[in-house]
Amino acid sequence: MDRSESGPFFIPQTFPLSDDKRRLFAYTVGMMNEMMHTPKRQTSSRSIQCTRVLIADDRPRTRDSLRALLLTCPGYEVVGQAINGKEAIELVEQYQPDVVLMDVRMPDMDGLEATRLIKSRWPATKVIVLTMHSGYQAAALDAGASAFLSKGAPPEKLLSTLSQFS
């Protein structure tokens, strides 16, 4: 039995590959098997703390864009994504994020009501309201939002605002 057959991933002998491709494939499969059986490294309590972020927006494209932006920046971990205010509250309870990026206009429960409830139950959680509707700024801050940003703001502005709460 060669290394490629020692785990759940193996190469069937009838698989039509040239010798070079078979060796490369066998190496890759062997590495995958090895990774599955290698214990994860223990991290010390001194490891770098990530800012845990929850994204709440009813538009998938907005959620995906924010997630992609945060994935490119070290120090941030997206712990969940909600499509409305009710789901945002459930996910805050479940994941205890440091920061929630909250849209205002969402179905079932809007972002302002969700912000009020989040701040009343988890006062340490920061809420940054992101919306296309600038008329909600005063209401968002009254609801307990830590910051208010337009969705049209440059990504650097969002990241600098987020860094204030890291």
| Uncertain regions spanning at least 5 consecutive residues | 1-6, 38-46
Radius of gyration: 22 Å
- Average pLDDT number: 83
Tally the structural domains: 2
Identify the overall geometry: globular
Q: How would a textbook summarize the main sheet?
A: 5 strands, parallel
Secondary-structure-derived class: alpha/beta
Query: Could you spell the SSE succession in H and E letters?
Result: HEHEHEHEHEH
CATH homologous superfamily heading of the largest domain: Response regulator
Q: Helical stretch count?
A: 6
Helicity range of the residues? 40-55%
Number of strands: 5
Description of the molecule:
It is built from six helices and five strands; from the N terminus they run H-E-H-E-H-E-H-E-H-E-H. The protein is an alpha/beta fold and 166 residues long. It folds into two domains: 3-37, no CATH class; 51-163, 3-Layer(aba) Sandwich (Rossmann fold), CATH 3.40.50. A five-stranded parallel beta sheet has the order 2-1-3-4-5, sandwiched between helices. Helix 5 links the parallel strand 4 and strand 5. It starts with 18 loop residues before the first helix and ends with a helix.
Tag the structure with descriptive keywords.
Rossmann fold, 41% helix, five-stranded parallel sheet, 166 residues, alpha/beta
Layout of strands and helices, then pairs:
Layout: H1 19-37, E1 51-56, H2 60-71, E2 76-82, H3 85-95, E3 99-102, H4 111-121, E4 126-131, H5 137-142, E5 147-150, H6 155-163
Parallel strand pairs: 1-2, 1-3, 3-4, 4-5
Helix pairs in contact: 3-4
